[in-house]
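Before surveying the methods themselves, it helps to consider a single example record, giving the amino acid sequence and backbone structure tokens:
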Amino acid sequence: MITKTQILAREKKWTLLAGIASVAGVAIILATFSGSAAAVRASAGLAEELVRIEGDRSGMLVASIGQLIGWCLLAIPLVFMFKAASARAPQVRTALLGVMIIAPLLLGIGSLLSAASVLEAAADYKDVDQAAISKCFDGKVEEATGEITEQEREDFRTECEDDEASEIRSDTSLASIETGIGLAGLLGFTFSVIYVSLWSMRTGLLSRFWGSLGIALGAVFAFFTLFTLVWFIYLGLLLAGWVPGGRPGAWASGEAMPAPRPGGRDPDDDVIEGSAETIDAAELEPGEGEYVDADGLEDEQQGERRKRKKRSD
């Protein structure tokens, strides 16, 4: 069994690295997002995006490699926090360590596959069926009522081009693989953030506020990715020791030190000491342990009041 001294020595060696990796991972993900496949919209303006990407294929590839590196870097703080929590709480399931590693890796691989799929769609869009676009455009013009302005005609053509681009994008050879790996990475990363936040809070590695916030942001990671990444920035600053007030006491003690509940009450305050052994009535002092019937006591008090009233009459 690992000792507290070994726990503290290991964490002292890797804490700064984990903190830097967390901040750097977020920075790389945000810096390369605009040029990655994740920024390519699914419908509105997709045709224009594919034309632009075909003219700068290397930019898409470089950005997606940056995304892969960024997501892989986030595996470092996740693994570090997981091991720190498991060293302080045997209830942490160590078999889940692999999820902390694989989930960010899958997100990065999904980004690469998505880039390859978009590049394939961009190449295919060069040979787009213009007759199909014209047919779609004529159909929209016929369905329109009243006089059609020049701007409306441009909008109709853009919609038809985007529809054709969307079909090409969904028909690429990597589309299904990209979707499957991306979904697996998304679910795994969501679980990882929630699990690490929960046990970090329970062991006192994170305050109740930041632990609860991590759980909430992990649950909505698919919809509010940016906010979850901001949480990783805080985590990195905390691990690096750049947060005002320093790290919680559990980091220095090497053991679990849960933060007190709101209001300053300790969970142990509600525990009633004693045993469940049956007490023999002969061992009780006179009057001790007697059962008082509340209804009978109330009837007796009412009877006394009636007697006093009769005497006064």
Observations:
- Confidence is low (pLDDT under 50) at residues 267-273, 288-292.
- The radius of gyration is 32 Å.
- Residues 4-253 form one domain.
